[in-house]
TrEMBL record:
Pfam families hit by this protein: Exonuc_VII_L, tRNA_anti_2
GO molecular function, one term: nucleic acid binding
Protein keywords: Cytoplasm, Exonuclease, Hydrolase, Nuclease
Gene from which this protein is expressed: xseA
Lineage of source species: Bacteria, Pseudomonadati, Pseudomonadota, Betaproteobacteria, Candidatus Accumulibacter
Name assigned to this protein: Exodeoxyribonuclease 7 large subunit
Function recorded in the entry: Bidirectionally degrades single-stranded DNA into large acid-insoluble oligonucleotides, which are then degraded further into small acid-soluble oligonucleotides.
UniProt-listed Enzyme Commission number(s): 3.1.11.6
Family: Belongs to the XseA family.
Spans through the membrane: none
Annotated localization: Cytoplasm
Class of enzymatic activity (EC top level): hydrolase
Length: 469
């Protein structure tokens, strides 16, 4: 701690003292937190390749410069060599080298100046063609398993052509090769590549087509990033293998091709199977077929031996069957005799049982006669009783017959509505009534209505419903 005067008081204030390493660490953390990964453009100077594989250099412009380091793991992925005087664009992490307190940039990736615009153009074209379906996996054509002729679209001066020819000559000497020369770099190369692919497809001389060239910068490979080349590959009736650049290089042609190879050599390996491998596979299958046939023949020979042991002379076969038939005949005769004997015994037993249960006809006939007499007596008694009941009911019904009352001088009076009149107050003056006698009936009109004492009655409710005169 150090003593410094407190402002306005003259009293000392305790201020923390930190070490240089702590200061540098805090400064580095603040820098890395404040600056995310970004792209920085400048000219390479003071370039130095260390034995460890790390690369140290400065990036400068007209007004300033900054120290940079690119570690070995990142340098190996660069694909090209840094040189003094190059103008590059670097993707960097702003930091501080704590041991020396140097402000520096840790380079994660680098590209030549201007490549950024090419990369953006590459991305836009790739996304557009992908949306169009030009790279769809369903449109990819399978490669022939055993092609007899392979076409190569590349430059006659390209090292890639020598690699492909040497690989095919070593692996598949039986395959014929047709070379379609074209420019692979420079102005007009893309159009010439597309025309060459179209010509190869029209001639149909080959069964598979290789489009290849060696490695290079993005500008060197740009002819294979043109839309016209991608569309020519998809329009070609032959399956196309692309072998452009190194393993880390990707072009639009790679996405459009039916099969991408990381290098031209790998493209040749994909185009035709290795003759030695095919011969070895053929020999292995021949050996397997031979072993299978030998095993099959051995099994069939063993089966023939087994069948031979089972084979008998026809005379022996007939004699064995004759003995069997004779034995069956004896068994049949014995069985018939035994069955007949058992049937006779069963029939005798059933006859004896039938005799025991046979009914006594004479005794049952007498019983039937007695029952018949009882039936006749009961029937007559029932008929007499029913006749007496019928006579009694008829007499009772005759007493209830209204016509019997009419024979004694009475009559039945009904209203104009057909209802029987039982008392005088049910009628009204001027109402029509009907009187039924023993013989015939009359209709009359009520002149007056009286009660039991001879007093006149009035019946307005009934009178209001009477029919008019």
């Amino acid at each position: 701690m150090s003593d410094t005067p407190r402002a306005g008081t003259g009293l000392p204030t305790l201020v923390p003292v930190i070490a240089v390493s702590m200061l540098n660490r805090l400064a580095r953390e603040r820098l890395e937190a404040a600056f995310p990964l970004c792209w920085v453009a400048g000219e390479v100077s003071n370039l130095s390749y260390a034995a460890s594989g790390h690369v140290y250099f400065s990036l400068k412009d007209a007004a300033a410069q900054v120290r940079c380091v690119m570690f070995r793991s990142r340098t190996q992925l660069l694909g090209w060599r840094l040189e003094n005087g190059q103008h590059i664009e670097a993707r960097v992490l702003v930091t501080l080298y704590e041991a020396r307190g140097d402000f520096q940039l840790n380079v994660e990736a680098a590209r030549r100046a201007g490549v950024g615009n090419l990369y953006e153009k590459f991305i836009r074209l790739k996304e557009g063609l992908e949306r169009e379906g030009l790279f769809a996996s369903t449109a990819k054509r399978p490669l022939p398993l055993f092609p007899r002729r392979v076409g190569i679209v590349t430059s006659l001066q390209a090292a890639a052509l020598r690699d492909v020819l040497s690989t095919l000559g070593r692996r598949a000497a039986q395959v014929s090769i047709v070379v379609y020369p074209t420019l692979v770099q420079g102005e007009g190369a893309a159009a010439q590549i597309a025309d060459t692919i179209r010509v190869a497809g029209e001639r149909m001389e080959c069964e598979v087509l290789i489009v290849c060239r060696g490695g290079g910068s993005m500008e060197d490979l740009w002819a294979f990033n043109e839309e016209v080349v991608a569309r020519a590959i998809r329009a070609c009736p032959l399956p196309v293998i692309s072998g452009i650049g190194h393993e880390t290089d990707f072009t639009i042609a790679d996405f459009a091709a039916d099969q991408r190879a990381p290098t031209p050599t790998a493209a040749a390996e994909l185009a035709a199977p290795e003759q030695a491998v095919l011969l070895a596979r053929l020999a292995a299958r021949q050996l397997a077929l031979q072993r299978s046939m030998e095993q099959y023949l051995n099994q069939r020979g063993q089966q023939i031996d087994w069948l031979t042991r089972r084979l008998q002379h026809p005379a022996q076969y007939l004699a064995a069957h004759r003995d069997g038939l004779r034995r069956l005949q004896h068994q049949l005769a014995a069985g018939v005799l035994q069955t007949s004997s058992l049937a006779r015994h069963a029939l005798a037993s059933l006859g004896h049982r039938l005799l025991l249960v046979r009914p006594d006809a004479a005794r049952h006939a007498g019983r039937i006669e007695v029952l018949a007499q009882r039936l006749r007596g009961g029937w007559q008694h029932t008929v007499q009783g029913q006749s007496a009941d019928l006579t009694r009911l008829a007499a009772s019904l005759a007493h209830l017959n209204p016509h019997a009352v009419l024979t004694r001088g009475y009559c039945i009076v009904t209203s104009d509505q057909g209802q029987i009149v039982r008392e005088s107050k049910a009628l009204a003056a001027s109402q029509t009534i009907t009187a039924f006698f023993q013989s015939g009936h009359v209709e009359a009109t009520v002149l007056a209505v009286f009660d039991d004492h001879g007093a006149a009655l009035a019946s307005p409710a009934i009178a209001s419903t009477a029919r008019p005169d």
